[in-house]
Structures are given as C-alpha cells and as structure tokens.
C-alpha cells in the first residue's frame, strides 16, 4: 500500500485546490494531514489529476478508492493509451466501467478501433444519456468489427471526431448511425495526411461524404483535416445541406482547388471562418467569388500559391477581415500590403500571419505595423531571414495589445540577435503577452552574463505569459531554469514539442481542437 506521505502529485495539487485560508489553517494544526480533509475537498483535489493518476490513488486506501471512483471525476475519458489515455484490457472491462464508473456523468469519450463494437456503443447509448462528445479512432484499422446487429447509438451527440483509415471503407458502420447523429453541430473527419509516405498509392474514398451531409443538417463547424480524397465536390455537398455553417476547415486537403467557393458563400451566409492551408487553390476560382458580399472574418490561405493579382483582388474586397494567415506565399509582396492598406479594410484586423513571406520588405512591414500594429492581438513574422530584432524593437511600442508573437528563423544568419535587449523590450511594452516563440538558431542568439536580469523583468512584468518556446540550446536552459525557480514550470518549452500559432485567436478555436 502506498503511503500518503509519498504522494507528491497530490500534495502539489492540494496546494492549488485549497484556498489561502485553508492552507494557513492546516499549517496551524500540527497533526493535520491530507487524510483529515473532507471528502468534497479531496474530490476537488483529485479533479486536477489525470485518470492514470486517479487509478494509482485508488490503491492508497478504501476512502481514496471511493473518491477515485466517483462518477464526477469521469466526465471526460480517453481510452487511447498511445495519446495519454487509459488502457482497457478487454471489452468486458470496458462494459463494466461504462455501467459502474461512467454512467450519466460521462460527457466525452475517446475510443480506439479495438473498443468500437456494437455492444460498447449500445451500452454507451443506454447507460450514458448525457454523452455529447465522442471520438472514434479507426486510423489503425485493418478490419472493422461487425455492426450488422447494431440497433442503438448515442443520440445527444453535438461533437464527433472520426479518425479515418486509409484502406477501410466506413459505409457499413456509417449506415447504422445516420439516424442518430442529426443533432451534430461539430464534425471532424481526420485523414491520414501525416502518415502518408512519399510513394504514390491508390486513393480510396473511405467515407461517403455525400450521404453523410444528408444526416447532419445542423452542422456549424466542419473540419476535414488532411484527407487525400476530399475535393471541391465534397465542399459543395456540405454547403447544399448545412445552412447553419459558420466554420469550414479543409487544411491539407490538396485536391481542393476552390471551384465551388462562389457557391459555398452564396449558400452559407453565416460562414465566418474558412481555413484552407496547403490546398491547391487556383487564382481564377478565388477571384470569381463575390468577396464584397461575404460575412467572412477569418481566412487561412497559407501555402496555396495564389498570385499577387488574386491576393490584391481578394483582400481589397473582403469588408471585415479580422484574422488572416497568408504565410509561404510568393505572391504576397509589398504591392499586396500597400493595396490592402489603401483600398481595403484592415482596420478590424486582430491577427496576422505572414510566415516565410520572403518577398515582403521590412520597410513595407514597418509602414503597415505603424498604422495597424496597435490593434493586433497576434502577429507571426517568422521564417524571414531579413526580419531581425531591429524591426521588432522598432515596432514593439506599437504592439502593446499583442497576446501572441512569433519571430525568428531557424536558418543560420550572418548577423546576431541581441536577445537581452529584445526580452527587455517585450517586458516593457507587452503586458498582455500570453504566447511567445523565438525561432532563431541558438548560435545566432547573443546574450550577456546579465541576461538573468532581462529574463527576471520579462517574468515579473508579463504575468499572463503561459508559453515561451525556444530552440534547444544554452539560452533555453537559462530561461527554463529562471522560470522554474519561480515555480512556473510549464511556461518554457522547446520548439521540438511546442509551436505557437495565431489559431488560438479564432472564434471557433475550441470547437476546432481535436486530439
């Protein structure tokens, strides 16, 4: 049996969960231990733990076991062990969990392919009436279970993620659930873009989008991520039936050319967010859209090879753009930025991403930021070797409302970046900063023996800073150690495991997140 004195995780969380008065009161009582806490306080402490940790806590004593099995701690459950979820050894064990531990409290569940059976889905629909969010992971499937006898499925789902397989056709399963999912508001279909090998293989349409759209008329958010068979006809299909559509994301669907965009906006009058990163947009199709009539506020056209003419035409006609991601575009140059300022309406812009826009000069960027920098909450100017700390220092006083900044390039530069001066400028000008990423090569960062003072000022003045990403190196170790001494252990991260993006500022960001 584990001693409660050894449970450092619980001790740490207890200090978070208890109020200051409670902590003081405990310190005054020499015999006070965590065992003396009321059940409701222990329950609150346990709520900060992962389910793996909760299961370990259940082995401490009978009292903790009862608290660990409280259904209120099991509202959101992942059963995918490869993504920090619980491992369930058998279907029988899962069925027991659903009945005993999950019950009416369950709101969200993630299931891997081996646990997606008609028996499990029937039990979820029967024992978990408040289940509204579900993820079904078929991505590693080589064969589906038999769903011919499936007669029940959760009926209150508002959010569903389906991770597709490259080779398994889903129609046998989908046909069984069409009658149960007409209340869906958020749908994620996740493809195999990140798993595709360079060799060309035959592409299969493993899910029938044209039938699926008929069963989901209430969708507000559609995310089709990295699906190799998705093309413009599938966008047209969804737009023909989903009049509530607010957000459409087709990132990394390289068969999308934009030929149905005009129809999409004519049908989906509420569409405010369109994300088309790394698609195959054709400039002529994009220019055919009646941009001056759209309600669009958020747009991602990164890495799409649109022409300069197309970019000028589009940006000068969209009336109310708040979010623009247009990185990795050779056509985005000084002419585009100048035309947008003079003939367009960037006055409502709060987020701008121009990553790797090598044809933009620092002079054009300075003029744009001088006029509109104060309104920006997010700015990404990374991947451009000619944009150094000098430009950032000159515009820093203007960017006083920024919450997200990404700067620097991993390429080795011929000049050095004076990072102490940069940190000092950030600390003194950006009190609202929440996320910061410096992508410069560690060999280009120059700092002195007094760099701790600049880091201290940053840490003390930017109290909202929750994420600071740096390339692994000596400066990263110095900054990380500084923040850890102040008990801010999760702030400093390496670029190998974290990346900062303006996507946090999207209106539907929480709906677009999938695991």
TrEMBL record:
GO biological process: positive regulation of protein ubiquitination
Listed SMART domains: FBOX
Gene3D superfamilies given in the database record: 1.20.1280.50, Ribonuclease Inhibitor
Domain F-box: start-end pairs: 31-77
InterPro entries: F-box-like_dom_sf (IPR036047), F-box_dom (IPR001810), LRR_dom_sf (IPR032675)
Pfam families reported for this sequence: F-box-like
UniProt-recorded name of the protein: F-box/LRR-repeat protein 12 isoform X4
Name of the gene encoding the protein in the UniProt record: LOC117643128
């Amino acid at each position: 049996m584990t001693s409660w004195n050894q449970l450092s995780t619980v001790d740490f969380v207890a200090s978070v969960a208890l109020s200051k008065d409670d902590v003081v009161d405990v310190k005054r009582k020499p015999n006070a231990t965590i065992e003396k806490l009321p059940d409701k306080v222990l329950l609150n402490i346990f709520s900060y733990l992962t389910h793996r940790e909760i299961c370990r806590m259940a082995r401490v004593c009978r009292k903790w076991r009862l608290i660990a099995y409280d259904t209120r701690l099991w509202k959101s459950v992942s059963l995918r062990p490869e993504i920090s979820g619980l491992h369930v050894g058998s279907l029988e064990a899962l069925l027991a969990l659903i009945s005993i531990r999950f019950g009416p409290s369950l709101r969200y569940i993630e299931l891997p392919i081996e646990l997606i059976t008609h028996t499990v889905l029937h039990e979820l629909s029967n024992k978990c009436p408040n289940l509204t969010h579900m993820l079904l992971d078929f991505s590693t499937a080589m064969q589906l279970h038999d769903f011919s006898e499936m007669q029940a499925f959760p009926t209150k789902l508002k959010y569903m993620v389906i991770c597709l397989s490259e080779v398994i056709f889903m129609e046998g399963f989908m046909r069984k659930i069409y009658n149960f999912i007409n209340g869906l508001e958020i749908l994620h279909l996740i493809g195999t873009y990140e798993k595709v090998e360079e060799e060309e293989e035959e592409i299969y349409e493993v899910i029938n989008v044209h039938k699926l759209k008929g069963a989901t008329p209430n969708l507000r958010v559609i995310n089709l991520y990295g699906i190799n068979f998705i093309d413009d006809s599938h966008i047209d299909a969804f737009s023909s039936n989903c009049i509530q559509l607010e957000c459409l994301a087709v990132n990394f669907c390289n068969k999308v050319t934009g030929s149905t965009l005009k129809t999409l906006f004519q049908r989906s009058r509420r569409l405010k967010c369109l994300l088309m990163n790394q698609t195959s947009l054709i400039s002529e199709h994009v220019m055919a859209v009646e941009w001056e009539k759209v309600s669009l506020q958020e747009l991602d056209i990164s890495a799409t090879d649109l022409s300069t003419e197309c970019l000028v035409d589009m940006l000068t006609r969209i009336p109310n753009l708040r979010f623009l991601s247009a990185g990795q575009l050779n056509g985005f140059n000084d002419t585009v930025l100048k035309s947008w300022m003079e003939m367009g309406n960037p006055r409502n812009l709060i987020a701008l991403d121009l990553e790797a826009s090598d044809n933009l000069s620092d002079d054009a960027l300075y003029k744009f930021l001088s006029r509109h920098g104060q309104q920006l909450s997010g700015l990404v100017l990374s991947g451009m070797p000619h944009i150094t700390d000098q430009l950032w220092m000159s515009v820093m006083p203007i960017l006083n409302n920024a919450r997200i900044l990404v700067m620097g390039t991993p390429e080795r530069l011929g000049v050095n970046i004076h990072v102490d001066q940069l940190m000092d400028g950030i600390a003194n000008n950006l009190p609202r900063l929440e996320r910061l990423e410096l992508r410069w090569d560690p060999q280009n960062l120059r700092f002195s023996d007094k760099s701790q003072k600049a880091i201290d000022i940053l840490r003390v003045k930017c109290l909202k800073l929750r994420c600071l990403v740096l390339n692994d190196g000596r400066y990263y170790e110095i900054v990380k150690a500084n923040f850890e001494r102040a008990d801010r252990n999760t702030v400093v991260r390496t670029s190998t495991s974290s990346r900062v993006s303006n996507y946090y500022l999207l209106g539907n960001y929480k709906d677009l997140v999938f695991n």
